[in-house]
Amino acid sequence: xxxxxxxxxxxxxxxxxxxxxxxxxxxxxxxxxxxxxxxxxxxxxxxxxxxxxxxxxxxxxxxxxxxxxxxxxxxxxxxxxxxxxxxxxxxxxxxxxxxxxxxxxxxxxxxxxxxxxxxxxxxxxxxxxxxxxxxxxxxxxxxxxxxxxxxxxxxxxxxxxxxxxxxxxxxxxxxxxxxxxxxxxxxxxxxxxxxxxxxxxxxxxxxxxxxxxxxxxxxxxxxxxxxxxxxxxxxxxxxxxxxxxxxxxxxxxxxxxxxxxxxxxxxxxxxxxxxxxxxxxxxxxxxxxxxxxx
Length: 294
Fold this sequence. Notes:
Elements: H1 2-21, E1 24-29, E2 46-47, H2 64-69, H3 78-83, E3 90-94, H4 108-120, H5 137-158, E4 166-172, H6 175-186, E5 191-198, E6 215-219, E7 223-224, E8 227-228, E9 252-255
Parallel strand pairs: 1-3, 1-4, 4-5, 5-6, 6-9
Antiparallel strand pairs: 2-3, 7-8
């Protein structure tokens, strides 16, 4: 009798811990997945690593494993490292890839020409006229709308109406616009905690109430002390601008490369790609821009 009682007590503890762990969802929204997929628009799937979808058998570019792998370039495990910062967190993955036509570049020709100009005017600091900074409102809104649809799916599948789930969002590049759409749907039904924004594409288009979150951090390799670097070292894939109405405080603002970072590689692509974003992990507890459970 005692052994049976102990068994049910332990089972109850395990079930409770499992439910608690699933109450803080950390949603990873990736960006552009390569020129070979430029024709492809995200199908809006929500990937639960504990429950692989039937589409996992698709080609490597469309599979769940490839989308999850986006967050581990060059053995830098962004997702695992971020999840480990929280005591109880459950990861979900959303594919934010959209065609180049939805970006500020609009066409491959404009992207290539921008790259050439960074080589011709390499001593310039101000990127205007060199990098493609002009807003692409229609393209950005396409991605936001896709995010809204995904947000509805998240509410229906993962958010218990009787329990207020906690949600943190980590996005990169094109995934920023998709994340904003998700937020629109979740903001009235969840407890929003951290918004981690890595090299956002179309940052100047942002329209969000940042006070919804406990922490909002915009990380970029293009700024140091909020000043431009030489244009050839700036992010040319997603030319960086500051987020509208996001002020610098103890819990919000722009985070550039720490001054003591070693082995830093910057450039048109390298300043954007997560494979060269190791400096993100140079931020330690107590530093501005760090987030997680304390």
